[in-house]
Amino acid sequence: MFISKPEILLALRSTESGWLGVLAAVLDEANQDPRFDSRQREILAQMLQQDSMASEIGVAARKCATRFEYELDHACRNTLAEHMHTELTQTDTQGRKLTLVG
C-alpha cells in the first residue's frame, strides 16, 4: 500500500499519532547520519514487516538506545564546552570596554 506525502502529513497531525511522530523523527535523524547504512536499513525494514518483536530484541534495543543517548549527550556537552571556551577566548583577546554612565 502506498501512502502519499499529504496523507502522511495528515496522519502526523492527529492527536493519536505520538508514536508515529517519534518514529518518523528518529528515522529522519538516522537518515542524516552516514553511519545508518544499508545493512541497518535492511534490519529496520525486516522489523517493521513483522507483527511483533521478540522481547529479547526490545531489551537489547533499549540498552543500545541508552548507550547511544549517553554518547549523544556527551558529544553535545563537549561541543557546548568547546563553544563556550572559544567564546571566552575571543572575549579575552578583544579586550573589555568600560562605559561610564552619568
Question: Which labels suit this protein?
Answer:
single chain; 102 residues; mainly alpha; elongated
Describe this structure in words.
- With 102 residues, the protein is mainly α.
- It is 74% helix and 0% strand.
- It contains 4 helices and no strands.
- It has helices at 5-13, 18-31, 38-49, 55-94.
- The longest helix is centred in the last third of the chain and has 40 residues, at 55-94.
- It starts with a helix and ends in an 8-residue tail after the last helix.
Quick take:
The chain is an all-alpha fold and 102 residues long. The chain contains 4 helices and no strands.
Structural class: mainly alpha
The value of Rg in angstroms is 22 Å
Range of helix content: over 70%
Q: How far apart are the termini?
A: 74 Å
- What percentage of the residues does DSSP assign to strands (E)? under 5%
Low-confidence stretches: none
Give me the number of helical elements.
Answer: 4
Q: What is the 3D form? A: elongated
Nearest-integer average pLDDT: 88
